[in-house]
Amino acid sequence: MVNALRIGIVGLGTVGSSVVRILKEKQDLLTKQCGRPIEVVAVSARDRTRERGIDLQHIEWVDDPLVLAASDNIDVFVELIGGEEGIARFCVEEALKHGHHVVTANKALLARHGVALAKIAEKKGVLLNFEAAVAGGIPVIKAMRESLSGNNVSRVYGILNGTCNYILTRMLAEGISFEECLKEAQKLGYAEADPTFDIEGFDTAHKLALLTSLAFGCVISVDDIYVEGISNISLADIHAADELGYRIKLLGVAVKTDTGIEQRVHPTMVPTSSVIAQVQGVTNAVSIQTDLLGELLLSGPGAGGNATASAVIGDIADIAKSHPGFQHGPVFGTPAQALAPYKRARMRAHAGGYFIRLTVDDKIGVFATVAKRMAENSISLESIVQRPLAENIQPNTKNIVLVTHETTESSVRKALSSIMEDGHLIDKPQMIRIERPN
Amino acid sequence: MVNALRIGIVGLGTVGSSVVRILKEKQDLLTKQCGRPIEVVAVSARDRTRERGIDLQHIEWVDDPLVLAASDNIDVFVELIGGEEGIARFCVEEALKHGHHVVTANKALLARHGVALAKIAEKKGVLLNFEAAVAGGIPVIKAMRESLSGNNVSRVYGILNGTCNYILTRMLAEGISFEECLKEAQKLGYAEADPTFDIEGFDTAHKLALLTSLAFGCVISVDDIYVEGISNISLADIHAADELGYRIKLLGVAVKTDTGIEQRVHPTMVPTSSVIAQVQGVTNAVSIQTDLLGELLLSGPGAGGNATASAVIGDIADIAKSHPGFQHGPVFGTPAQALAPYKRARMRAHAGGYFIRLTVDDKIGVFATVAKRMAENSISLESIVQRPLAENIQPNTKNIVLVTHETTESSVRKALSSIMEDGHLIDKPQMIRIERPN
């Protein structure tokens, strides 16, 4: 039997502790599957005394993560500290330079420094595996990096944040407001005390940036992502969408267009009959469209200690099964040196269908004015629903809901700005982009 | 740059021709992704003169597939002939014994001889990759074999046959009979002239047998699968299911129970709100439930030249990216020598919910008799729908539709047999098992 694969882990939060526990509990299964034992030989975390429910007795405790990163006693360095700068970055760099394989769940680090780190890994001939960084337990990185070799991807989109999907699912199912759902999610531990990072789409953007690089063989560019969160989605939107046969999901979307790559994170209407519309609660899902496959969709748990640990362990097992010193495929599917420059397509050129909800004075001629503004901007309409709002909400007001055929972001913005100038709106207009499966 | 990876392909039908064409068209992309060129150096097929729309000019033609399997001029042998015995089996064996990596899409061969072939491959230290054998372009083999390392699978189920799913989808959408849908599917090339193998569930069974081995680390046992096809599904079933909030799908299901492994292929009711219920037309889907992940679902194209070729090319790319002479994980996740014996759980012990549709005389007391038989067998009912059939279909008859809470196959069979003896049935009773997502 080959020697044990020696693991060093830094960061012993929920995921780190789960990895240590599962590697122990499942050691027989993993040894059988990998042909060699996997052994956690050293760990490092901030607080040595904290109770984590795991047995660290026969594992070396290293105070300094950087020392562990450079240790000759490990084969694989597992980084579960998180954060795009500071200690996480330093020790991943150190471990790679030292010739260790690295496994990380750190989306922020990779979204910012992934290409630079991949260059080091590829130069050193070691692996930098990051399945856990995107969509938790769903093996989307492996699917894109390995299974889709030879495919040209045209679009990738997904529900990449469980907190947002939980809130949007509950709003529809229970008819309760965004604020109430958020509070509930916080109580259940699905949302952080400061939920901004999830709710406003930044977490989704980090994950999308990695998928975009894998999909299109380009460098990672998280700063080029258009980001809009879900905090302004109202029950009125949710219900109007439902009535028209749509669900609202926070999607990260990356599309290859004639003018470049469009990366965007925003509330999105998807047809209720689509598979992704049925992805409920904290579950994540990713859809990948390619020339050879049409659409491939993966859904599963996007977070949680066990699910994320499963992805980390899958990454470790891949290393354990490999012959020491072998070469493997590039970190982002294409060698880091050969990743294409990122060419951004402007949001204003985005073409697609739009859902528009206007709260207007209940007066004669208002609808005609709205219709005229749409026509002026060459926007053709698929559905129109006009309905008085309940008296107890806003007396003498109407909700006009429009679904457009394919048009451009710039046309919709122009039309909405004219409508606002017309002065009939009582509230900010709502505009939600529509995404259709292939 | 490393030398080109030399490929020999036997079988140049739709998939084989697509592989040759795509490897040529995508050679730059694949070379970048794999770090070395992939080159088809030799092919073999029955008819050299057939027009396939591919350029074979610079590729050696070998008349005898066995000669190609043993050729020293190739690194990877790709078998796309099909069939569980005969030439496909001989040449895969020959290629493995000769130390070649093998890529195959042949589910029948693997369902029958997979373990024996895996033993040869593992002894020789070569890969036997078969992503294309199950669910076409969906990377379910890789997910189960690699990503789920350390997971204990409790159940795997899926829509594994596009023909059946196409027919069931059309029956509901268009309200047309099984026979008409089948004719339509044949016209569109989604069903064979002799559709028995697809329609009666045997194709699904072959694929399920492979998933079961991967899921539970046991030997493959295709003969232990309970198989029931879709040819007796009527529009009445489809509509009753719809009314009760279910869709009917032909599923292959493998479950670990206390008494052994249950492998079954049959029409199945799944809740309309589940993700798998929304998998339409020829699309396939596989759901895997594990202790660490909860549920993972993958959906995508289950057949077609390009999609299947994509899976074959993914398998080839994995070999191309590997260092020559490296060791890799076992063919079925667990080393072939260590696969557990198969222990079959009997269908009569199967526990679950059931949909039962009875066509009965429209007479007083019939329903009471039916209810009594259910009670006698300790079957509790979740829903009951009783409705007269349209006069022009069967005068003076009623449809009784029952959905049971969890019970056993054996109780349901006993109750139905008593009901048949009671003599009120006008038609064979219909019984469809219910499968719920986690």
UniProtKB/TrEMBL annotation, chains A, B:
Broadest EC class assigned to this enzyme: oxidoreductase
Biological pathway: Amino-acid biosynthesis; L-threonine biosynthesis; L-threonine from L-aspartate: step 3/5; Amino-acid biosynthesis; L-methionine biosynthesis via de novo pathway; L-homoserine from L-aspartate: step 3/3
Keyword terms, alphabetized: Amino-acid biosynthesis, Methionine biosynthesis, NADP, Oxidoreductase, Threonine biosynthesis
EC number(s) on file: 1.1.1.3
GO molecular-function terms, A-Z: homoserine dehydrogenase activity; NADP binding
Residues where L-homoserine binds: E192
Residues annotated as catalytic: K207
Single GO biological process annotation from the record: threonine biosynthetic process
Family from the record: Belongs to the homoserine dehydrogenase family.
Organism taxonomic ancestry: Bacteria, Pseudomonadati, Pseudomonadota, Alphaproteobacteria, Hyphomicrobiales
Pfam families noted in UniProt: Homoserine_dh (PF00742), NAD_binding_3 (PF03447)
Binding site for NADPH: K107
Residue stretches making up the ACT domain: 355-438
Gene3D superfamilies named among the record's database cross-references: 3.30.70.260, Dihydrodipicolinate Reductase, domain 2, NAD(P)-binding Rossmann-like Domain
Keyword set includes Electron transport: no
Entry keyword NADP: yes
Protein name in UniProt: Homoserine dehydrogenase
Organism of origin: Bartonella apihabitans
Binding site for NADP(+): V10, G11, L12, G13, T14, V15, G16, S17
